[in-house]
Amino acid sequence: MEPSTLRWITLLSRKTLVYLSSALAPYGLTAAEEPFYMSLYYVEGITQEELTALVYADKASTARRVKSLEAKGLLRRERDPADRRRNRLYLTEEAKARFAGVHRELLDLDQRLVGTLTPQERETLERALRTLQKTMNQVLEEQKRRGSGDCG
What we know:
Elements: H1 5-24, H2 34-42, H3 48-55, H4 59-71, E1 75-80, E2 83-91, H5 93-114, H6 119-146
Antiparallel strand pairs: 1-2
Helix pairs in contact: 3-4
């Protein structure tokens, strides 16, 4: 039996994480930390809640990744001057210094994967992925409205 489209996407995602775990290790990052790290590089000074929404993670996962990046000396928290109850998140200078290498690893993987496609195949794939993303957003909104995010 041929795997479903969703299964192919899931397999590709898992294999990507395996690859990134190894490729990012020299930079002191895990595949799980990468989206948080990259998001903070581009949008510094956001709150943990904003970071959670940006990477579409759950609060517990974000808390673990923020704590891990902080323990590695790659992230620092600063009190929000406008609201002393909240912290703003910033990459450290050490984290910023690693960015070029991390970015290069991500671009290299992207090129190795999509570089095997013709320009027309790549355009078709990107269009299909945008459509799937939009549809998944709708599915999640419907699920949220029904209140059926629980498994029990």
